[in-house]
Amino acid sequence: MIKSILLNYKTVYATIFVILCWYLFHVIIQSNIIPNPFETILVFFQLLQDDLLLHVGVSFLRIAVSVLVAVILGGSLGLFLGLHEKYDLYFGPVIYLLYPLPKIAFLPVFMILFGLGNTSKIALITIIILFQILVTTRDSVKGLSKELFYSISSLGANKRQVYQHLVLPAVMPKLLTALRISVGTSISVLFFAENYATTYGIGYFIMDSWIRVDYVEMFAGIIAISLLGLLVFKAIDLLEAKLCKWALLEKGENTNF
């Protein structure tokens, strides 16, 4: 309970700090390019009653589907390669070659293959998240010592119990950390992808406002995409609190603020 209150306090503090810095830039620059934050916040709430919420909802749906597919595929492949070294010898070099490639460059390819709708955008974001999840999961499993597997096997654990009581608990905290990193990147990529062949999405809304030289609405869109990222991060935090309680306790014991 106390920890939850402290986290909420930190979020409020960070929000106030950002708004004050924003207002300071507005006063110093004295240009419409940096609008008054308080005016922008009022416009943001007005736009929520118009179509801004629809744009945010469409973007959130694209992110949610991409994350779900990437976690299922990337997590499964990562576990398999981490537990089967002979297959990792063949596929590891391929992953090593493809992982650092800028996936955003493949957006035109996905648009040709999957069309101009949601599928091409979801496919792009999925590929970005998938590699991060795959590599993190595989390396986490490979980092487990063989003695741990020998110990749990000596207690009579079957294959399912090895996954349930050893592999998944060891991998889950790192997988969620990788998900945080990759989701932040994917939201940035989504902003870029939503500028092509679409009429809905927060990226489209921001760029449309910029073209119309409506900087107040543009910054209202920036607030919306920031809140979208915060919402996804909070959802991951809730998952971590539910699935990795031992990891949070360890952090609490070893962290001094």
Automatic annotation (TrEMBL):
CDD domains the record matches: TM_PBP2
Transferase among keywords: no
Keywords: Cell membrane, Membrane, Transmembrane, Transmembrane helix, Transport
Residue intervals passing through the bilayer: 12-33, 53-82, 94-116, 122-141, 187-206, 218-236
Pfam families: BPD_transp_1
Compartment list: Cell membrane
Ranges for domain ABC transmembrane type-1: 56-240
Topological category with respect to the lipid bilayer: Multi-pass membrane protein
Annotated Gene Ontology cellular component terms: plasma membrane
A GO biological process held by the record: transmembrane transport
Source organism superkingdom: Bacteria
Family label: Belongs to the binding-protein-dependent transport system permease family.
Name of the protein this chain belongs to: ABC transporter permease
Lineage: Bacteria, Bacillati, Bacillota, Bacilli, Bacillales
